[in-house]
Amino acid sequence: xRRLNILYVVMAAVCCLLIGCDEVDKADRLVYVKPAxxxxxxxxxxxxxxxxxxxxxxxxxxxxxxEQYGSDKVIAVGIHGxxxxxxxxxxxxxxxxxxxxxxxxxxxxxxxxxxxxDRRGKPTTPDQWAGMVRTELExxxxxxxxxxxxxxxxxxxxxxxxxxxxxxxxxxxxxxxxTEDAVVAPQQMPxxxxxxxxxxxxxxxxxxxxxxxxxxxxxxxxxxxxHHSITLDEEWAAENIAVVAFIYxxxxxxxxxxxxx
Length: 261
Description:
single chain, alpha+beta, disordered N terminus
């Protein structure tokens, strides 16, 4: 009789276990967690030129801001174009590009140095950048952005993989720029002398995916992967090349990141 009671207890336990293990609908198993907004980095588009006396002062302001907040938080791109920029010729190494000219024309730049901070409004003078950068860094961004690069020295091909995760559904443009640091080229200085050994950093070299980037649509909580490649010019030092990626819309830059090779 005792054995029979034990059997009943075991059978009851098994029944309870089976009832508790009923299959749960997949929709009830996973709880969606909306991605959190992330800290923001700031893009400074520095309109500059080698014949611009005050442009080295703008470079010093950028350096100061990067020392204050971090070079990963304040990302600068030197756009050489317009009347005070210089094309390469048989006598001088110039950094001016038709791309830089196009940007100067589009943004109506008629005085140098000026710059755009996260494309908020019109180009401004360097003395205004600190306040604008501080304001932008106090915000968060709905977009998490990262860039990975792989360089093939035998073909001088740089492959770029861009990863985007958004906490909201939105549309905009993804822009990829190629920049170069440590470029030694002449620069007119504030005292009106010419420094032939001036070191230029974050020099805009090329637009990897077109002058104004490409359309991108982001969905809340979904990752987006974009792949590109570019062949580096023989004049560019591969070890000093970086990719600047940013997403922007009509309101300005949503997020920016810089990835060194």
